[in-house]
Specification:
Distance between the termini: 52 Å
CATH architecture of the largest domain: 3-Layer(bba) Sandwich
Strand order of the largest sheet: 8-7-16-17-18-15-19
CATH superfamily of the largest domain: FAD/NAD(P)-binding domain
Largest sheet: 7 strands, mixed
Helix content: 25-40%
């Protein structure tokens, strides 16, 4: 890491979420000075925690999980000392509608994508016919071609068009795609679903590994990472929202105003959610419409009088609950969290009804929960937790650069080539750092490479254009 000189150019970062923090780390490693302005009292953005009402300490508002394919997020954690607080789980636990459990672990004995065979064929809630259909469907998805953006089908429409069984869609594709993308399978684009299949499962033997934080997100990003930055002379301004940007006569930004205080800068990276960015930069950021919209995620937090979940995590298929994560066990109290993606209109907003339904499902699949007493419950919903990756969204996701030479955008909603995830946020921050540093004549390290694809993966995942597009191309020739 280059030492930060007192006369080095100054970059102001608007927003202290993952995108802004990743931007700051990359810029400081390039030897630039950084000022982060965060409206909340703690950095971390949506990767936030709240006070545990039962055992004390912090509880994550919503469980965040990375996968092995999230190379930039994992690299950021390694660089800033957070890697030791991530637990690696290679086994995915599925609990079927009848309570059948399947521990599915990709093998290290076969090359990708054959490493997935134990995972696919280990699902006990599927017949052999369904398992074969699932395997073929995944390969066809990997070779799919979305065609023209405006004509791109949704994932559900495409899966139905290739004859995937209803049971396979409902008990595998729906929970996997909705959990990975945070949006309903009947709304997500085919290209986004293909991204999940290829990068998240087929590309590499480590792609589907889960990396689960073992410390609260508020501690990891709000304390440990910010301490790493401050120890290297970054300036953190919290509890002060940026209200305006001060521009010089030539149009360049020369300062940001946060909490009534003006902070001079040589470049600016705006790394806040798109609605906030549009309010701050109405002439540069597209306004939200049906193509640039959010999708809600709900977390149901439950505290019981005993330990009830006997797995580190589980995918509950065919139920309201999608993922359950085992939390801390303190004395005679235990905490678990159920995460439900694309939760718009769930139980018509009846939180008590949702809580009761989730508790009932846990008691059906976890024997220990049947005699347990519910001590406390909290339902947390973020109405715009992620960017909805619908057909057409890539046309309106803005690039990092703007028409102002020293003003740049970051955030998981920008054009990163990734869906709205922690990996997408970190990638956006690194891309913005590269552009901001280049505008100041300073070299900056770029993205961490994706997991390498072997020749078999590259062959099997080579997309095939539809016949219609092929015929059109031949006519043009």
């Amino acid at each position: 890491m280059k030492p930060v000189e007192s006369k080095a150019p100054q970059v102001a970062i608007v927003g202290g979420g993952l995108a802004g923090l990743a931007t700051a780390v990359a810029l400081m490693e390039a030897g630039l000075r950084v000022t982060i302005c965060e409206a909340r009292r703690r950095c971390g953005g949506r990767a936030a925690s709240f006070d545990d009402p039962v055992a004390g300490g912090l509880v994550d508002a919503c469980q965040h999980v990375a996968m092995g394919c999230c190379t930039n997020f994992l690299d950021l954690c390694r660089r800033t000392g957070l890697a030791d607080a991530l637990r690696r789980d290679r086994t995915l636990f599925f609990i079927g509608p009848d309570g059948d459990r399947a521990a599915c672990t990709p093998t290290r004995l076969l090359p990708a994508p054959l490493h997935l065979l134990p995972l696919v064929f280990g699902m006990r809630h599927f017949s052999w016919r369904d398992k074969t259909a699932l395997a073929m469907g995944m390969l066809r998805l990997a070779r799919s071609h979305s065609g023209l953006r405006q004509e791109e089908p949704t994932a559900l429409a495409w899966l139905e068009s290739i004859g995937q069984p209803e049971s396979v869609i409902r008990l595998f594709w729906q929970p996997v795609i909705e959990s990975a993308l945070g949006e309903s399978i009947d709304l997500v684009s085919l290209s986004a679903a293909r991204k999940v299949a290829v990068d998240g499962f087929l590309a590499h033997r480590e792609a589907a590994d889960l990396w689960v934080p073992t410390a609260p997100l508020g501690t990891l990003f709000g304390e440990t990472l910010t301490a790493w930055l401050e120890s290297r002379s970054a300036t953190l301004v919290t509890g002060a929202a940026v209200s305006s940007l001060v521009r010089a006569p030539d149009g360049r930004v020369r300062a940001v105003v946060a909490g009534g205080v003006e902070y001079s800068c040589d470049a600016v990276v705006v790394a806040v959610p798109w609605r906030q960015a549009a309010r701050l930069l109405p002439d540069l950021v597209p306004t939200a419409d049906e193509r640039l919209a959010g999708s809600p995620i709900t977390a149901v937090h439950l505290w019981f009088d005993r330990d009830v979940v006997d797995l580190p995590h589980a995918v509950l298929v065919g139920r309201v609950s999608q993922w359950v994560f085992r939390g801390d066990v303190t004395g005679e109290r235990s905490h678990c969290q159920v995460v439900i993606s694309a939760s718009r209109g769930l139980f018509a907003g009846d939180r008590d009804g949702l809580r009761d339904a989730v508790v009932d499902e846990l008691r059906q699949v976890f024997p220990r929960a049947r005699a347990a007493r519910l001590v406390e419950a909290r339902v947390v919903t973020d109405p715009t937790a992620v960017l909805s990756v619908r057909p057409g969204v890539e046309e309106v996701r803005p690039p990092t650069r703007t028409r102002i030479p020293n003003l740049f955008l970051a955030g998981d909603w920008t054009a990163t080539g990734w869906p709205s995830t922690m990996e997408g946020a970190v990638r956006s921050g690194r891309l913005a750092a590269v552009e901001a540093a280049a505008s100041l004549g300073v070299p900056c390290a770029g993205l961490t490479p994706d997991l390498p694809k072997n020749p078999l993966v590259r062959l099997l995942c080579r997309s095939v254009a539809p016949q219609r597009a092929t015929r059109a191309a031949s006519v043009m020739e």
